[in-house]
Design goal:
Layout (H helix, E strand, L loop, with lengths): L11 E5 L5 E8 L3 E7 L2 E7 L8 E7 L8 H8 L11 E13 L2 E10 L2 E10 L5 E2 L5 E12 L18 E15 L1
Antiparallel strand pairs: 1-4, 1-11, 2-3, 2-11, 4-5, 5-6, 6-7, 7-8, 8-10, 9-10, 10-11
Length: 185
């Protein structure tokens, strides 16, 4: 996590709004098309340092059991010991270690992703945060988008099947897309 040495008043705490946030992934299936899925159980906190955004930090978690690919049988297989082992590893977590500015409202956020009991560094390309805005109930909100790509085998998600025509059933690269809103808290 990025260290914040400023006074607490200079850091704004934002709580992730799970009702207006989404975590999506896609992975090649049979080497011909992508299968997509979502997670709905998101939580997290962004500690924003507006005077120096590179000193901001974020921690987030996702409930693995909230996985949904629009196919109950596939969801069950993904939650099983062949993949996520959701009963043993019910959450995936991310804790930032470095924030780098890439342009106006564009950042690279590197941190430790823990998935399936394995922790590896991952870097997200982040667009945002947006300018703060008020919702109809008086809450101040910001939003951001983040993307990354991981190799599932790096996290011990090794199950696969060979195809009769050559190749494999499930691709190794997993593309992750986050659309997140935070409420000033």
């Amino acid at each position: 996590m990025a260290t914040t040495t400023s006074s607490p008043a200079s850091v704004i705490t934002w709580k992730l709004d799970p009702a207006h946030s989404a975590a999506e992934f896609k992975v090649k299936h049979m080497m011909i098309s992508n299968v997509k899925g979502t997670f709905s159980g998101l939580s997290g906190t962004l500690l924003e340092n507006p005077s120096d955004p590179t000193r901001s930090s974020v921690e987030a978690s996702i409930d693995i059991t909230s996985l949904n690919t629009a196919d109950a049988q596939r969801d069950g297989h993904l939650k099983s010991a062949d993949f996520f082992e959701a009963e043993k590893y019910p959450t995936m977590t991310f804790k930032s270690t470095k924030v780098e500015r890439q342009g106006d409202a564009e950042y690279r956020v590197t941190g430790d992703l823990t998935l399936h009991g394995v922790t590896k560094p991952v870097t997200f390309a982040v667009d945002g945060p947006s300018a703060p805005g008020k919702d109809p109930w008086g809450n101040t909100r910001i939003g951001l988008s983040a993307t990354t790509k991981i190799n599932r085998k790096d996290f011990g998600l090794n199950w696969n099947a060979a195809l009769e025509t050559g190749g494999i059933l499930v691709g190794e690269d997993v593309h992750i897309n986050l659309e997140v809103q935070f409420i000033k808290g």
